[in-house]
User: Which sequence fits this backbone?
């Protein structure tokens, strides 16, 4: 393995949070590297249009948006390395991030590794994501005005999303594998009294079908062991998220949903390690909030490094 280069800050993840943090850190003249295991841009590249990022009243293609994020971070001096962070350890007052190909030493670290929506794991699901299949009502609800859609799930998030989506859709099927919800009572009452929502109890999605766009799903009632097609314009999968924290388990404090706990300055339980974006507990799961928390983390790193001698 090559000797570890020395940076002021290593940012892990080049999604909206990591790239925004990189721009601010680079512009503050901090020696900055952003590690990205895949293509810079993050989860938003899974969809084909973003309508709710401020500054683009007509919307923008995510690839174009994230290319601009990347250009701006590079312009102000951040490096972007293709590498996957596998562990973080302390060594002589510095943090050392072990990547697959080398190690990176730094005085501070920002974890911006995002989260992955849990998938149903069905054929067609990935191909039709952004083409009728979605994991985020806030992001995509407005695309389904007067259409017929379904939400899969039975927790608080699924029920909240279903209620929110009835502002747009004509009809919503809520597909739940059990005969009762685990969501809070008040949400259950709102769902059950909403005329647009029909609950399909004891039901699972067995197939997701369509050519260039979602056309139908196959629903199985597991109690009656009966399968039938359901024509749909949109399917929202709301069965949870997995924050990408495997490589820092035991190092920083994590909440019951697997998100990294942060304070008001995006600091984690380890001095010098910050977190931003979807991986952090304080961040609603949106591009704009990922950007905001990424910027806040970079500003906090700058402050932290001004007083660095006192922390170590
Ligand atoms: C289909 C879809 C549609 C969406 N639509 C919208 C929308 O319209 N509007 C909106 O505001 N939000 C939308 N979102 C949500 C939005 O994409 C996220 O909230 C946002 O991308 C979070 O940014 P982030 O930087 O925190 O994380 P991410 O975007 O998840 O980026 C994290 C990056 O870290 C990398 N990474 C992870 N682990 C490692 C590691 N160990 N080492 C190196 N790199 C690593 C990942 O490859 C990824 O590139 C959508 C999400 C999805 C999935």
Assistant:
């Amino acid at each position: 393995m090559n000797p570890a280069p020395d940076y002021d800050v290593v940012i892990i993840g080049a999604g909206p949070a990591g790239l925004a943090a990189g721009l601010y850190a680079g512009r503050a003249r901090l020696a900055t590297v952003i590690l990205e295991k895949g293509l810079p841009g993050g989860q938003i590249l899974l969809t084909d249009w973003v309508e709710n990022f401020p500054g683009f009243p007509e919307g923008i293609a995510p690839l174009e948006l994230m290319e601009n994020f990347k250009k701006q971070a590079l312009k102000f001096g951040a490096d972007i390395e293709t590498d996957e962070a596998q562990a973080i350890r302390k060594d002589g007052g510095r943090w050392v991030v072990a990547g697959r190909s080398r190690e990176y030493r730094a005085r501070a670290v920002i974890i911006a590794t995002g989260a992955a929506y849990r998938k149903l794991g069905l054929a067609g699901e990935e191909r039709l994501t952004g083409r009728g299949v979605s994991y985020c009502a806030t992001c995509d609800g407005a695309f389904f005005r007067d259409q017929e859609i379904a939400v899969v799930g039975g927790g608080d998030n699924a029920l909240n999303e279903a209620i929110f989506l009835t502002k747009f859709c004509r009809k919503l099927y809520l597909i739940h594998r059990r005969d009762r919800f685990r969501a809070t009572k008040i949400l259950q009452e709102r769902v059950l009294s909403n005329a647009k929502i029909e609950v399909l109890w004891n039901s699972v999605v067995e197939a997701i079908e369509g050519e260039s766009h979602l056309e139908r799903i196959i629903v199985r009632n597991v109690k009656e062991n009966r399968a039938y097609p359901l024509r749909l314009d949109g399917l929202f999968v709301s069965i949870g998220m997995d924050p990408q924290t495997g490589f820092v388990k035991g190092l920083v404090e994590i909440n019951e949903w697997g998100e990294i706990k942060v304070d008001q300055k995006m600091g984690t339980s380890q001095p010098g390690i910050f977190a931003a974006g979807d991986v952090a507990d304080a961040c609603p799961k949106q591009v704009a909030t990922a950007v905001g928390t990424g910027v806040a983390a970079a500003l906090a790193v700058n402050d932290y490094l001004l007083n660095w001698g006192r922390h170590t």
